[in-house]
Amino acid sequence: MGAEFVCSDVLDYHLDGPGADLVYTGKGALHWMFDLKGWAATVARTLAPGGWLLVFDFHPMMWLFRDGEQGLERNPVSYFAPTISYTDWAASHFAGGGTAPTGDVTKRIRPWPPSAVVQALVGQGLELQVFHEYPDTLSGGWTAYPRATDAERAGVATTYAVMACKPDGSR
């Protein structure tokens, strides 16, 4: 069985042909999405009946802390903040030859609480099957807090996973 990967503005995407068996939203995608309901609607219309959505993304709790000189420090943001803005651009945002903007270019992200993601999906008729949160210690070679102790990092959720399916009508 083959796979097809599509690069598109997710809010403008319309599948030609039968629905997809799997839609994946990867680590770091949802906090760039300012229309969560629009994203969930695209997922729902893209999935075939019986199809699955897998989300593995950054947990918004990650932005509540920063890597201080002596370990984790509280970041002065709200868990329910509508937007976080900053101007430092990591080189990893521009893989494949792109370069970071110069000057005072602001980056805006929206770290949605996982409950908002789940509610957007359920609101489109998808059925939640799995929800898990993971600490920074499970991130492999990358860590949000390189100067923090393992014990500190184990206490902060930095990623989460959601699996949901589109009902197939056979029940």
Please give the count of helices: 3
Principal-axis shape: globular
Poorly predicted segments: none
Output the structural class. alpha+beta
Beta-strand percentage range: 25-35%
State the name of the first-level CATH class.
Alpha Beta
Distance between the termini: 27 Å
Largest beta sheet: what is the strand line-up? Answer: 1-2-8-7
Helix content bin: 10-25%
Give the tally of β-strands.
8
CATH architecture: 3-Layer(aba) Sandwich
Q: Which topology does CATH recognise?
A: Rossmann fold
Q: CATH superfamily, called what? A: Vaccinia Virus protein VP39
Order of helices and strands: EHEEEEEHEHE
Model description:
The protein is of the alpha+beta class and 171 residues long. It has one domain (10-165): Rossmann fold (3-Layer(aba) Sandwich). The chain is 15% helix and 29% strand. It is built from three helices and eight strands; from the N terminus they run βαβββββαβαβ. Helix 1 packs across helix 2.
Describe the secondary structure blueprint for this structure.
Layout: E1 20-25, H1 36-46, E2 47-58, E3 65-68, E4 71-74, E5 84-86, E6 107-109, H2 114-122, E7 127-135, H3 150-154, E8 157-165
Parallel strand pairs: 1-2
Antiparallel strand pairs: 2-8, 3-4, 5-6, 7-8
Helix pairs in contact: 1-2
